[in-house]
Amino acid sequence: MTNQDCIFCKIISGEIPAKLIAESEHAIAFNDIDPKQAIHVLVVPREHHGNIAELAFANPPALVDLIQLGSKVASDVSTGSFRFTFNTGSEAGQTVFHAHGHILSKTPKA
Ligand code: AMP
Ligand code: ZN
Predict the structure, then answer these.
(1) What is the per-residue pLDDT across 52-93, written as a single tens digit (0 to 9) for each?
(2) In CATH, what number is assigned to the domain containing residue 12?
């Protein structure tokens, strides 16, 4: 499942470059191009779904895999104190309509 007009599908296919941090069966993690905190990583399912709620119903194992990948990345790169957020819908600030989680942390691991 891909969408040819979707920027995250293009990152997943390699058409657009990104700073890959980690990957798993169902998801990839890469640095946000416009970081809002010292650590700002996006965790993105390989399949195209419009938001995290749609992913949850369409492919629950992929959602669990995404949460696990994000949690691993967060504990690898931060002190373990982080936010894991999912903007869902434009009023909530969603700008890319391919499901994704933001890992945000103030404190990189020493
Ligand atoms: P949201 O506003 O929750 O939809 O988050 C979308 C995020 O994607 C924003 O934080 C953007 O900075 C980020 N973003 C957009 N284009 C790229 C890109 N090409 N590479 C990495 N991050 C991106
Ligand atoms: Zn997509």
Answers:
(1) 999 999 999 999 999 999 999 999 999 989 999 999 999 999
(2) 3.30.428.10
Average model confidence (pLDDT) across the chain: 96
Asked whether 96 lines ligand 1 (CB < 6 A), one says: yes
The domain of 75 spans 7-105
Residue 28 domain-assigned (yes or no): yes
- Name the helix (H) or strand (E) containing 70: helix 60-77
For ligand 1, whether the C-beta of 33 sits within 6 Å is: yes
C-alpha R_g of the chain: 13
Distance from C-alpha of 37 to C-alpha of 56, rounded to nearest angstrom: 27
Ligand 1 centroid to residue 73 C-alpha, Å: 18
Examine the residue annotation and report whether 100 is marked as an active-site residue of this protein: yes
